[in-house]
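Record pair follows.
FIRST:
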Amino acid sequence: MENRFEDVVQDVLDLMREVRAEHFPNLRTAKILVLFDLKKRRSNGKMVLGRIQRTNDLLRYLTQLQAAEEGYDYIIYLDKVCWNVVSDGDQTRIMRHELRHILHDIESERTPWKLIPHDIEDFAEEIELNRDDINWRSRVVGLTQEIYRVQEEESRE
């Protein structure tokens, strides 16, 4: 059986740390695991370039050896095909978007780490930050879908 996920390379972790430091200093204590997703994923009819999941008790237990005593707070999954073909700027956009889903509720002792949904189809802040390339997501999805299409054709041959 093939694994669906694999560890990301160090460059991805470095980018995550850079984006977090620049845009989300309030998340500096969040423990975040980043993985590549090796399989094309769709949600509500749209291609998923990246997604984030808040861990539950089981995932925290299973990751406690990797992330200190309490395990990871979040897991970010990145489409590996997409990640490997897009520009550094688009990688930053994807990472920043996923990190924007994190909310650190300092008043909650039980579950201080939460996930927040989009405030519109995207986040208002991301639209402003991406005003130089407002169609970046469509461009990246199109490129990624084309690569998957070619891979599927090659596997049938």
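SECOND:
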Amino acid sequence: MTIDNLNPTLWAGRLLANLNDMHLYKKGFNTDYEGEIRAKGDAVKINSIGRVTVSTYTKNSTISAPETLDDAQQILRITESDYFNFEIDDVDKAQQTPKIMEAAMFEAAWALADATDTFLAGELEAGVQTANILTAATSVGTGPTDDDAYEILVDLGVRLDENNVPDVARYVFVPPWYHGVLLKDNRFVSFGTDKNRANLRGAPIGEAAGFTVYRSNNVPVSGLAYTIIAGYTGAATFAAQIDKVEPFRPPDTFSDAVKGLHLYGAKVTRPYALASVVATQAT
């Protein structure tokens, strides 16, 4: 990090802050196993059991022998490791008016969160089982021949219904242009509760077709094709093992430095509880 180009002129009293986007994909994950990861290691084995068979009972007859339950095991691993490390020379610090360290820390924290958000979006996209990837919506818009943005959300919800996914804690992530199409649809903007109107002023941006709708700039995209992902928080789990920030004085310079480390991982544990569709914006 170099700020030599700012010397020796007077620094402005206020910094020009970057316009950063929000990080929302963690809202699609639970953190049920994070405590175990932090305490014991870089992986945790998640056990589950299969279905139990129900048979018809006939009076005074012998029932079948007890069945042996099937078990399944999944492993949540800490696979990602991100860090930052920057310094501010004492000469620069003496000449500055704005709180450059505070602003730099904000940018560093945002960068770590952005890396995590992008990773989680990719994990959800890769975790959708093939049967739950809907036919591609080639052109989403408001024209008479365009695919309907709201109806696509309905179709995603139906697919989850067919897989017995709970109605609660359902979400869908959409890019800004898709949100714009929804805002032109009365079925979305006229949802008549005070809570929904409040949601429209921030994140989440509203509720539609049984989903809490989140607008994100990290929606997975290939070319002009965006992967709209829907699900519920029981479908995937996230864990951070180390999340620390350490200030220090480098021994070979006269400067203040800060470094940060973030170790984390995620696992889609119920692929059938996610659904997705690839959508492009109508032109």
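COMMENT: Residues 25-281 form a domain with the phage-related protein like fold fold (CATH 3.90.1690).
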